[in-house]
């Protein structure tokens, strides 16, 4: 998790400190993305070289002719030093980029995340097409799991040791022990193929009517939410139990506040901090592609795009998706850091 | 601090510390080490014990896989086309061809013995999970203890690195890494390369989790009197780090390592499911589910066996790990 949430925040902060804080956090996000980009670059451009493989072949496929390979080498600038290649790539994101080999120029408009030599399609186009699917999947699932998981955890903590608590925690433990691709297949097998309750479309779009769109997404939402709700329930229960033992809860009770107020306004508010940290990371990871869920349900999101790119050995697409995923996580972290100030009264931004 | 794992609260208590008990007519109190206390607690925790037994059985199955398959199954890569319906290529008979000869039935399309492949799959799954946890614990302990003890810029640097690694899109990263690496590397061939790569990457992305815990514990331990005593007696850095601090970190590290194994099993299964695990025809649970994705509408049993196996394995490790954590918790009351 991106550092301690309260890091660097003075107790008394004016508006200037808020701005300074935001700038510092933004700076950290940029650094983070550059590090991921550099690491990704090393994996794709340096590792194969060290392992004795031809990077141009990895990009274009084994069946490519010698001249074409040479062309790709020049177009991609594979003979340039790594840092030059790195800089060209980074520059391409805001500026766009021309891959040139003499007269053979391929233009990649900004934001240029690279260019697939297999499909002749800019990576950004692939990302743009896949993002709404992943977004819809993530949005539905995260609402379900956040509400379900936190509610279950709170009730379990309040009724510690009751039958409800034990049942909920057993289910949660089973939930975190199940591989999501198995749960997904079982759900599909039962509700789509055996009972026929859910009708799914081959391709997720709202063209077939909102009903079909909804039905196609309902199982992925539930399956993804179940796994995460199990984790959140465990986390919420543990945090709530810890918080409920704190002195300020006793103070709140003894000054005559109602139990509802004590739980929601005092206990839950403080228990939300660690949950929010995890939530931010999870959303970030999810927006970068729910790889397993999308593969199981054949949803054409970012994760499936990456997996397909990997089996086609279409490296630029993998590079683009990985970078985008890192960006999503970094931004989610930033948003969480700002949200802390809203939720946790101990953090003051001004 | 020669005896590792001594419970701190008991130290202060001369009666419990094993000294001669003050004979006040009450029952004589014997000194018990944390190890003994933990073992006694664990023995009473039926759920955790069940988990532990299942884990043991699985380890035995993995170690003696050739023997078990020799007695109860068929070689894992032997095709049995005669067990399949020639029209649909699905197993003949009920429940995916389950019989006394084929305990878990046969695979659709290829007709390989599912039981044998599950048994051999346990080897890959457990081997990768154990070794990856070992890598993660070794790296995490080293960096965590160094960061926590030295503080300052060392701590800042290591903590930053851990933050960055924790917010990596790990799964994407691992699959892309595995996909660009060649099949023979550093003199290893066949499934050996993939196993080594899986252990390395899963372990590498796991160490920051251990590192953070060890760092936190070290931060609180380094101010203790016994560390100061060791320092004032002239103990060197290495001595303090590995002779004084490390023994006191064994309990949290053990718990975390145990709880890391199930996560690693799930990761390995996920990677195999995505086609980035060990290469076919080597059997792996995730790989079987990948194959089952094509036929599960018609032959659900081929999906159920590997899926339930993963579930039971991961659950058993989780139950045992949770029990171990409760048993080693110095604040625990049981």
**Total beta-strand segments of chain B:** 0
Class inferred from helices and paired strands of chain B: mainly alpha
CATH architectural type of the largest domain in chain A: Orthogonal Bundle
Query: What form of chain B results from the Cα inertia axes?
Result: elongated
Roughly how many Å is the radius of gyration of chain B?
25 Å
- The N- and C-terminal alpha carbons of chain B lie at a distance of 26 Å
Task: Please indicate the percent range of residues of chain B in DSSP E strands (runs of 2 or more).
Answer: under 5%
CATH superfamily of the largest domain in chain A: MetI-like
Oligomer description = heterodimer
Structure annotation, total helices of chain B: 12
Spell out the key features of this protein:
heterodimer; A: 350 residues; mainly alpha; MetI-like fold; 2 domains; two-stranded antiparallel ribbon; 3% strand; globular; disordered N terminus; B: 334 residues; 66% helix; 0% strand; elongated
Give an overview in words.
The complex is a heterodimer of chains A (350) and B (334). Helices cover 72% and strands 3% of the residues of chain A. Chain A is mainly alpha-helical and 350 residues long. Chain A folds into 2 domains: 15-122, no CATH class; 123-343, MetI-like (MetI-like fold, Orthogonal Bundle), CATH 1.10.3720.10. Chain A has a two-stranded antiparallel sheet with strand order 1-2. In chain A, a hairpin with a 2-residue loop joins β1 and β2 (104-108). In chain A, α5 packs antiparallel against α10. The longest helix of chain A is centred in the N-terminal third of the chain and has 36 residues, at 15-50. The two termini of chain A are 24 Å apart. Mean pLDDT of chain A is 79; it is low at 1-11. Chain B is mainly α and 334 residues long. Helix content of chain B is 66%, strand content 0%. Chain B contains 12 helices and no strands. Chain B has helices at 8-11, 34-44, 46-63, 65-72, 114-150, 152-166, 170-180, 191-221, 225-232, 237-273, 285-295, 301-328. The longest helix of chain B is centred in the middle third of the chain and has 37 residues, at 114-150. The model of chain B is unreliable at 1-23 (pLDDT under 50). The interface between A and B is large, with 54 and 44 residues.
């Amino acid at each position: 998790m991106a550092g301690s949430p309260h890091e660097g925040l003075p107790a008394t902060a004016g508006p200037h400190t808020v701005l300074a804080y935001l700038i510092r956090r933004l700076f950290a996000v940029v650094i983070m993305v550059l590090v991921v980009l550099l690491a990704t670059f090393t994996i794709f451009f340096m590792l194969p070289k060290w392992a004795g493989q031809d990077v141009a072949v990895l990009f274009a496929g084994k069946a490519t002719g010698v001249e074409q390979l040479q062309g790709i080498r020049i177009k991609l600038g594979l003979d340039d030093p790594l840092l030059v290649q790195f800089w060209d790539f980074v520059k391409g994101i805001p500026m766009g980029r021309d891959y040139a080999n003499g007269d053979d120029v391929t233009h990649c408009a900004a934001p240029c995340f690279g260019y697939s030599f297999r499909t002749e399609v800019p990576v950004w186009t692939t990302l743009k097409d896949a993002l709404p699917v992943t977004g819809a999947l993530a949005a539905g699932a995260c609402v379900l799991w956040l509400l379900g998981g936190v509610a279950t955890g709170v009730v379990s903590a309040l009724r510690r040791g009751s039958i409800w608590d034990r049942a909920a925690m057993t289910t949660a433990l089973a939930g975190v022990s199940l591989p999501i691709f198995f749960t997904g297949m079982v759900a599909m097998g039962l509700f789509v193929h055996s009972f026929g309750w859910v009708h799914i479309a081959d391709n997720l779009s709202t063209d077939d009517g909102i009903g079909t769109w909804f039905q196609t997404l309902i199982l992925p939402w539930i399956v993804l939410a179940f796994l995460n709700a199990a984790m959140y329930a465990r986390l919420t229960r543990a945090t709530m139990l810890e918080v409920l033992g704190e002195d300020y809860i006793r103070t709140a009770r003894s000054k005559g506040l109602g139990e509802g107020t004590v739980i929601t306004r005092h206990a839950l508010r403080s228990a939300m901090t660690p949950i929010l940290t995890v939530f931010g990371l999870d959303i970030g990871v999810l927006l970068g592609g729910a790889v397993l869920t999308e593969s199981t349900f054949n949803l054409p999101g970012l994760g499936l795009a990456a997996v397909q790119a990997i089996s086609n050995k279409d490296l630029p697409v993998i590079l683009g998706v990985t970078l985008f995923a890192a960006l999503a996580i970094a931004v989610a972290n930033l948003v969480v850091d700002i949200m802390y100030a809203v939720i946790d009264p101990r953090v003051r931004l001004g | 601090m020669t005896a590792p794992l001594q419970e701190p609260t008991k130290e202060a208590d001369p009666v419990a510390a094993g000294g001669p008990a003050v004979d006040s007519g009450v029952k004589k109190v014997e000194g018990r080490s944390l190890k003994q206390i933990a073992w006694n607690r664990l023995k009473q925790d039926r759920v955790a014990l069940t988990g532990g037994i299942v884990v043991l059985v699985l380890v035995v199955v993995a170690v003696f896989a050739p023997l078990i398959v020799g007695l109860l199954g068929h070689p894992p890569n032997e095709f049995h086309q005669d067990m399949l319906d020639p029209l649909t290529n699905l197993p003949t008979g009920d429940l995916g061809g389950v019989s006394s000869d084929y305990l878990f039935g046969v695979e659709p399309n290829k007709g390989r013995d599912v039981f044998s492949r599950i048994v051999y799959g346990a080897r890959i799954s457990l081997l990768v999970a154990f070794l990856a946890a070992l890598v993660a614990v070794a790296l995490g302990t080293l960096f965590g203890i160094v960061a926590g003890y030295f503080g300052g810029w060392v701590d800042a640097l290591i903590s930053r690195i851990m933050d960055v690694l924790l917010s990596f899109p790990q799964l994407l990263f691992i699959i892309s890494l595995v996909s660009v690496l060649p099949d023979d590397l550093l003199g290893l061939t066949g499934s050996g390369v993939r196993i080594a790569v899986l252990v390395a990457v899963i372990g590498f992305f796991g160490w920051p989790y251990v590192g953070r815990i060890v760092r936190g514990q070290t931060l609180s331990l380094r101010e203790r009197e016994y560390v100061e005593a060791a320092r004032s007696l002239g103990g060197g850095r290495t001595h303090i780090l590995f002779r004084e601090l490390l023994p006191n970190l064994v309990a949290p590290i053990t718990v975390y390592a145990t709880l890391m194994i199930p996560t690693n099993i799930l990761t390995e299964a996920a990677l195999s499911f995505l086609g980035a695990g060990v290469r076919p025809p080597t059997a792996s649970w995730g790989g079987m589910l990948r194959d089952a994705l094509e036929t599960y509408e018609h032959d659900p049993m081929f999906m159920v066996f590997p899926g339930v196996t993963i579930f039971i394995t991961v659950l058993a490790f989780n139950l045992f790990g949770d029990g171990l954590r409760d048993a080693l918790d110095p604040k625990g009351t049981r």
